[in-house]
Amino acid sequence: MTVSSASPSLPAGADWAPAGLEARLVEAALTALETTSVDRLSMRSVASSVGVSHQAPYTHFRSRTRFLAAVAGSGLAGVVTEAEVAVERAGDDPIARLLALGDHYASFIERRPHLFDLAFGPVVAMRDHRVLQEAAIAYWSLLRGVVLACQPPGTPDGEVQNRCEIAASTVYGIARMGAHHKIPRVVPATPRELVNSALRTLHDGWHVIPGQAPRTPTPGPDHQADESRGLP
After folding, report:
1. Among the four 117, 175, 213, 223, which has the fewest Cβ within 10 Å?
2. What is the DSSP letter of 108?
3. pLDDT above 80 (res 45)
4. Which residues contact 94 (CB under 8 A, 6 or more apart)?
5. Which domains are delineated in the chain?
């Protein structure tokens, strides 16, 4: 594997130069994670791909853990940027933005499972590198803003935070089950369709008044199109 010398964008919290060796090592590791799980990621191979000693990641990042945290944060920062674009493309409707973010999150898990496992798994902690801290905070801030816009007036901040975690964990569970082919064959919907349905159900539940029966789930765009054609 040979990595291009092109400079990656510098994520928030990075303590290295955009075109420096540290940036090249991080880029090489991210490239490797496209096809290799973190437990099989070789520091020697990463270093070799940029033509330096196998000790380079340790020398420049002080430890394997800190290097991996920098890699996770750099990758996650790019994912956050993609998610922000997806949300903005959804327009101003709060639920459309929620569904766009959920779809992007599920897509992230499907497309880049090894990066996701590194960023959110047990190998590194958010405190292990500032880049990872900054990226995680940015992702949560985006999620919180999207979920907050879907809440009825007067929802306490603590409850908004709870609902953010519930939404994220729901999408995570469905997407991971789908990625590992663990969803029973009798389930006709795709993982992405299940994510969409789950978020609509959560959204409708957020607007239920205590003691009042839940309203009919919000119809999706496909159902609305069917209605316009006179279909059930």
Report:
1. 213
2. H
3. yes
4. 146, 149, 150
5. 21-208 (1.10.357.10)
Choose among 62, 60, 64: nearest CA to 52.
60
CA distance 143 to 168: 8
Residue 76 CA to residue 70 CA, distance in Å, equals 10
Q: Which amino acid is at 164?
A: C
- Please indicate whether residue 134 or residue 11 has the higher confidence score (pLDDT): 134
Q: How far apart are CA 207 and CA 213, in angstroms?
A: 11
In a 10 Å sphere around its CB, with 0-12 CB exposed, 13-18 middle and 19+ buried, how is residue 72 labelled? buried
Q: Which residues make Cβ contacts (< 8 Å) with residue 6, sequence separation at least 6?
A: none
Q: List the one residue out of 59, 34, 10 whose CA is nearest residue 43.
A: 59
**Separation between Cα atoms, residue 16 and residue 23, nearest integer Å:** 7
Selection from 216, 206, 232 nearest residue 146 by Cα: 206
Distance (Å, rounded) from C-alpha 73 to C-alpha 53? 23
- Look over the chain and give the mean of its residue pLDDT values, rounded to a whole number: 87
